[in-house]
Amino acid sequence: MKHPQLYFCALLLFLSTKCLSQINTFPYLENFDLNPGGWTSTSLSGSDFEHGSPTILGATGANSAPYCWGADLDSNYQMNSHSYLTSPKFYLSSLSEPYLTFFQYRFLSIYDGMYVEYSTNDTNWNLLGSYNSVHAYNWYNVNTSNITGGPVFYGLSSWNYSGFDLSSLGVNDSIRIRFAFKSRPTLNGFTPGVFIDDVSIFEKSQIPIDVSITAITSPSTYPNTTTNYPISVIIQNNSNLYIDTVISLYSIDGVSSTSQALAVGLFPNQTDTFTIGNTTFLPGNQTLCGSIYLQNDIDTTNNQFCMNIIAPTFHTLPYYEEFEFGNGSWFQTSDTLTFWEYGTPNFGLTNAAHSGVNCWDINLNTGYSYFANSILYTPLFDLTGIPLSKISFWLNYNSEKYFDGTRIEYTNDDGITCNFLAI
């Protein structure tokens, strides 16, 4: 009667072990700190994956201390290693978009590498993802490796995050994941190896996503009124997911363009420049804003970037302006408390216009301040077909000799570059 009892206990132990290796409750997070987490190691040759705390020189401990899996924990990995770290079986039917993440630390020769595989039947194993897969983040850093001929993780890295969209596989039932490590058949490695920690599977929608506009690159601050300008912006993906499309639009003084779907194709932490529309500008001062929208964006405060646009009026020659009936569509900018002002001067030696009562003057009623940096802009002049042209004006000034002064510059690229007007 003892044998059936022993057999029955053995059967219970077997069933308990199998239950531990099946996961159907999500989100799943395994940090391996209490136990191996139902993950198993198999070595065909050489160094094996081990569970514990890395002690080999060159490793930096677990990502979440104290334990992780590593090949090898306490010594440099061996030549001709071929080892697997295999997950429990995950039943994904309760997830709409299952997403796999893990942290990895690598210290590998360029001749060696790690890759990830998956199986739905525990018999046939397939490579998970491809080099720079659009369904992944931080996925394989070489496309054709020396050790497998295919994509792998290799080289040196700190602990870093990788993720893969398992819904892209079309698997809606069971799946098992394994990390495979291979080293060259000759010459032992002189580095610690590869380490895995903090594996998760959860709904993709739970991953924070964030995109931002960081600048407007076109037009310049001073566009002319005759050109149809592209509205170009820099968009950055601040997420750990690939972003393929956003909704974009622009506005001028609060009047918005029609929104449109914009294909951006941005990998995590990638930045690129995109055109979100085209427009011409009316003369004068106006506010141009570029905006983007993405569903579930966790930070909408960075979805818009605005800039001040000053579009000069356009004049042909001859041109004459005495400023008696308005400011002549001239405009100024300043980054100090000193401004070019239009009106009647009334301070010190600069206390009158040359003709009439009005002109442009630095601070009509007060002196200029320290560190003044103020610019007065003319309208835009068309010199087409005019080989010789001349500018003349009257100037009255009273500034500190050798330290302060006024100079004239010109631009022919909408203010992007300005050049001294000199002989």
Kindly summarize this structure in a few lines.
With 423 residues, this protein is mainly beta. It has one helix at residues 2-20, and strands at 22-23, 28-30, 40-45, 50-52, 68-71, 82-91, 98-107, 113-119, 126-127, 136-137, 160-165, 174-182, 193-203, 211-218, 229-237, 243-252, 255-256, 260-266, 271-279, 284-293, 304-311, 314-316, 331-334, 340-343, 359-362, 374-377, 380-382, 409-410, 419-420. The chain folds into three domains: 21-206, Sandwich (Jelly Rolls); 211-311, Sandwich (Immunoglobulin-like); 312-423, no CATH class.
Would you kindly provide a written description of the structure presented here, covering whatever features stand out?
The protein has about 425 residues and is mainly beta. Helix content is about 5%, strand content about 40%. The chain has one helix at about 1-20; strands spanning about 20-25, 30, 40-45, 50, 70, 80-90, 100-105, 115-120, 125, 135, 160-165, 175-180, 195-205, 210-220, 230-235, 245-250, 255, 260-265, 270-280, 285-295, 305-310, 315, 330-335, 340-345, 360, 375, 380, 410, 420. Strands 2, 4, 5, 7, 10, 11 and 13 form a 7-stranded antiparallel β-sheet that branches. Strands 1, 3, 6, 8, 9 and 12 form a 6-stranded mixed β-sheet that branches. Strands 16, 17, 18, 20 and 21 form a 5-stranded antiparallel β-sheet that branches. The radius of gyration is 34 Å and the shape is elongated.
